[in-house]
Amino acid sequence: MSKYIPLHGMIAPLLALLLGVAGWPSQGLAISLEDAKKQGLVGEQPNGYLEAVVPNPPADVLALIADINAKRRQKYEQVARTNGTSLDVVEALAGKTAIEKTPPGQYVRSASGRWIKK
């Protein structure tokens, strides 16, 4: 017997929480996520992960992106397992949530792959 779990009912609140936690800067990194976003160096993508907006970003920005994306993936996998859904579904919902929550003046990647300043 298949058990239906409404994704938007259970996953969305978990994703909102984990995006906040996964966005916290790690100790030892020279730039915070908030600063990197405000400076237009980093943007949110539809797949739920961060990426550099500018070509050849500084090493500390690349380290920040790698660190946060690794933490996000770990949380997404946990949410997917808990809810019996695929990682792709959780990533897409997380990306949608992150893009919706991105404040004006910061960058998001459109579905066509272009960076857009909100």
Provide a concise account of the structure shown.
With 118 residues, the chain is α+β, with helices and mostly antiparallel strands. It is 53% helix and 10% strand. Strands 2-1-3-4 form a 4-stranded mixed sheet.
Describe this structure in words.
Helix content is 53%, strand content 10%. A 4-stranded mixed β-sheet has the order 2-1-3-4. It is α+β, with helices and mostly antiparallel strands and 118 residues long. It is built from 4 helices and 4 strands. Strand 1 (42-44) and strand 2 (50-52) form a beta hairpin. Mean pLDDT is 85; it is low at 1-5. Helix 1 packs antiparallel against helix 3 (59-83), helix 1 packs across helix 4 (87-101) and helix 3 crosses helix 4 (87-101). The chain has one domain (26-112).
Provide keyphrases for this structure.
disordered N terminus, 118 residues, four-stranded mixed beta sheet, alpha+beta, 53% helix, 4 helices
